[in-house]
Each structure stands twice: as C-alpha cells, then as structure tokens.
Specification:
Layout: E1 2-13, E2 17-20, H1 32-39, E3 43-46, H2 53-68, E4 77-81, H3 92-100, E5 106-110, H4 116-129, E6 135-143, E7 161-173, E8 181-189, E9 197-199, E10 212-214, H5 216-238, E11 247-250, H6 255-264, H7 276-279, H8 286-296, E12 305-312, E13 316-323
Parallel strand pairs: 4-5, 4-6, 11-12
Antiparallel strand pairs: 1-7, 2-3, 6-7, 8-13, 9-10, 12-13
The structure holds oxa(dethia)-CoA.
C-alpha cells in the first residue's frame, strides 16, 4: 500500500465585474472579432478596487472546504500559486490562512506563473506521499489586471482575475495506476526564455510591480511544442496512454493552443474542459478554476483519468496526471 494525494473538494471564485471583449474596442485598435478568433476569449472578470489576490483565494478556499466537508483547522497546510501576491511578503497564502481562521499548519506561495498550479500540486503531492502531511489546500489565485499595460493591445485583452482551489487528501492506494489521486507529474523550466514573457519590474530591480510583456507568437510556438510533450511524459510515468485519458484540463490561455495540444494527444474536443471564453487567461488560477467549474457540473466520474498541463513565464511548464 502507498499514500496517494486525492482531490476531495474543488472550489472557485470569480470577481463580480465581467468585461466583454467589446469594452476594449473604443480604447484600443482591437475588435471583439480579433480577440475571439485569435484566442477564443469572449469575456473575463476583473477584481474590484481593493479586492486582492488573497481575497479571491479565501473565497475559492471556502468553497473547496465546503465541498470536502472540512473545517480550516482540518488542513495541515496551504500552498498558493500566484505571480500577483498582495504584498512582496508575507506570502499571500498566510493571508488566506488568517482569512479562513486557520490556526495551525503552514502556508506558503509558489511562483511559476501560469504553470504555478501544476508546480504547487506537485509540491503538495510530494509532501502527502512522503507522509509529512495528510491534507493540503492548493490554490491558484491571480489579479493579473494589476500588471497590465492598458495601452498594449497584444497583452491586456488576454488576461483575467480569479481563483480556484482543491483539497488534496492522503488516501491509501495499491501503488499502481488504478489508484485514485495524483499518479505522476512532469515539471520543467528553461530560464533562457525569460524575455518571451516577463514583468518589467520587481523588488530588486525597479522597486515597482511592473507590467507584463510578452512576445505572444513565440510563446505560442513553445506552448504548442511543449505542452503535448509534457502531457505525454507524465502519462508515460503513470504507465497510461493518451487513449486512456478521459479529460484534458488545460491551462486556459488560447483556444488555438488548447486545440493543437488536444490534437497532438489524439483527444477529441469533447474530452477537453474549456473555460477560456468566459475567464480569459487567469494564469495560475486557470486550471483549478476549470477543475472546479467542470466538477460543479458533475462532468468527472470516479475513476476518470485527468491530465492537466500549463506553460508560462520562465519559461516554466509541466503537467499532472490524476485519477478522479
Ligand atoms: O499563459 C501564458 C502563456 N501565454 C500564452 O500562451 C499566449 C500565447 N500566445 C498567444 O496566445 C498568441 O500569440 C496571441 C493571442 C498573443 C497573439 O496571436 P497571434 O496569432 O500569435 O498574433 P501575432 O502576435 O502574430 O500578431 C498578429 C497581428 C499583428 O499585426 P501585424 O503585425 O500582422 O500587422 C498584431 O499586431 O495581430 C495584431 N494584434 C492585434 N490586433 C488586434 C495583436 N494583438 C491584437 C489585438 N487586436 N488585441
């Protein structure tokens, strides 16, 4: 028997304000038609003034705890993936911990930009499998609207704010791929691609938060090449084939990247969870948001094989394979 990290609850929160593509039309040389056809995005949510990443994370966390039937103090720790924390420090995760009224355990942030949730989940999975902890809340929460250059049509139409959360709990498994829970993860970074996607400010450089800069078409090419590769690698590690995948839950950056990845994996689009139209790219929040939305609709059945994959600034990319 071995320990497995099983998802026992999901939750999400989206800020109230919804912004349609048409909102950008009188501000920038862009159109609903361009955004829709090049990205699949139709609308996104933006946080209200004063609404922070940890505020979004707390609401998503409460929903996930409710779903799992747990209280905050049932948790051993919180791992929160974000690139847009409330403050330089302390970690946004500690603010979520306080906001939940959780009085025990640990809380820390993981920063791997859009791939952050996969990295955070891999981290929590390792802690659970090693026996260090039994229950971890893993959150992806972002307020990318705070680091947009609103004069740059090539980036500001793409991103949105939101948060998603999952509870990972230790359960006994047989040690083969019929077990429930996370079966394999595959993580990568390559820092030589920094200039393709970065924020032009920071604590030890400009002393400001900075704004997002991206060479979108180059990131696009890396995404199409690397995402299917990492998904295949994680499936290999789990001893599974793409034919055995029930659901692809991809990072929601661009519908064309998602379709190309699904095609490379030989998966029909009916097996792909899509939220990009309504959420835009919410960076580390996009996968847990998609998981929570699909779970809320009852789309995953016990025993289903799920693959998640993401790529973002770094470049950093990776995937996780799990059985629901
Ligand atoms: O989550 C982190 C990872 N990030 C991503 O995965 C994003 C990856 N990249 C993409 O999704 C796509 O590259 C974009 C959606 C960002 C851009 O789509 P593209 O098909 O790669 O377009 P492009 O950058 O090659 O630009 C094509 C044209 C350009 O005009 P010219 O030079 O051909 O005259 C752009 O200036 O589209 C223009 N363009 C726009 N036009 C209207 C760029 N942004 C816009 C816009 N509205 N918002």
């Amino acid at each position: 028997m071995i320990r497995r990290a099983v998802i026992t609850g999901t939750g999400h929160y989206l800020p109230e304000r919804v912004v349609e593509n048409s909102w950008f039309e009188d501000k920038l040389d862009t159109s609903d038609e361009w955004i829709r056809t090049r990205t699949g995005i139709e609308r996104r949510h933006f946080a209200a003034e004063g609404e922070t990443t940890s505020d979004l994370g707390i609401r998503a966390a409460r929903a996930a705890l409710d779903k799992a039937g747990l209280q905050p103090d049932d948790l051993d720790g919180i791992v929160l993936a974000t690139s847009t924390p409330d403050f330089t420090f302390p970690a946004a995760a500690t603010m979520v911990q306080a906001g939940l009224g959780m009085t025990r355990g640990f809380a820390f942030d993981v920063q791997a930009v859009c791939a952050g949730f996969v990295f955070a989940m891999a981290n929590a999975d390792a802690m659970i499998r090693s026996g260090q902890v039994d229950r971890v809340l893993v959150i992806g929460a972002e307020t990318f609207s705070r680091i947009m250059d609103w004069t740059d049509r090539t980036t500001c139409v793409l991103f949105g704010d939101g948060a998603g959360a999952v509870i990972l709990e230790a359960q006994e498994g047989k040690g083969d791929n019929s077990d429930r829970g996370i079966l394999a993860c595959d993580l990568h970074s390559d820092g030589k691609y920094r200039d393709l996607l970065y924020v032009d400010g920071g604590v030890s450089t400009t002393g400001t938060a900075g704004q997002l800069r991206m060479q979108g078409n180059l990131v696009f090419r890396h995404a199409v090449e690397k995402l299917a590769k990492t998904a295949h690698a994680a499936l290999d590690k789990a001893g599974l084939t793409p034919g055995e995948v029930d659901w692809l839950v991809p990072h929601q950056a661009n519908l064309r990247i998602i379709s190309a990845t699904a095609q490379k994996m030989g998966l029909p689009m009916e097996k792909v969870v899509l939220t990009v139209a309504d959420h835009g790219n919410t960076s580390a929040a996009s996968i847990p948001l998609a998981l929570s939305v699909a779970d809320g609709e009852g789309r995953f059945k016990p025993g289903d094989v799920l693959v998640t994959e993401a790529i973002g600034g770094g470049l950093s990319w990776g995937s996780a394979v799990l059985r629901w």
